[in-house]
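Justification of computing resources. Each target in the renewal requires a structure prediction run like the one illustrated here; the chain below, 107 residues long, is used simply to show the kind of job we budget for.
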Amino acid sequence: EHDGLLARADGLLQLGRELSDAGKLRLVAVSLDTEWKQVHDFFEGAIPAEIVLESSGLSQRNYDLATLPDTYLLSADGTLQARFGGARDWQTQAARDALLAAAKLAE
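Resulting structure tokens:
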């Protein structure tokens, strides 16, 4: 199970890098873990630069986070634009298209 979650996280991070390089969006992956050790262990020591730790609970309250992994598309001012529930393979064309379509709505 861990390998599958890690592969999906890596896929999302890679897609985020591609879209960021193209000037389409900036990906920030928020970990709700309580300490960096948990994140370090999940990524097997190499924490990607896009990961931020948010253990205050503010994100959970502001965006009504109930299940993970979920993916949220926010505007530059933090307004929720789209929510993608559950795990998905972000390397598929369908996932990429869905994210890009939602991002255009956010413009």
